[in-house]
Amino acid sequence: MISPVTISAVFDPAQTLTCGQAFRWQEVLGEDGLPLWEGAAMGKVLRLRKTQTTQGDAISFFCSQEEFETIWRPYFDLEADYSAKRAALSSIDPILETAAGFAPGIRILRQEPWEALCSFIISQNNNIPRIQGIIHRLCRLLGEPISGSSLFTFPGPERLAACSVEELSPLRAGFRAKYLIDAAKRVASGETDLIKIARSPAAFGRSELQKILGVGPKVAECALLYGFHKTECFPMDVWMKRAMAVLLPGRAPEEFGENAGLAQQYLFHYSRMHPELFGG
Question: How far apart are CA 186 and CA 53, in angstroms?
Answer without folding.
Answer: 49
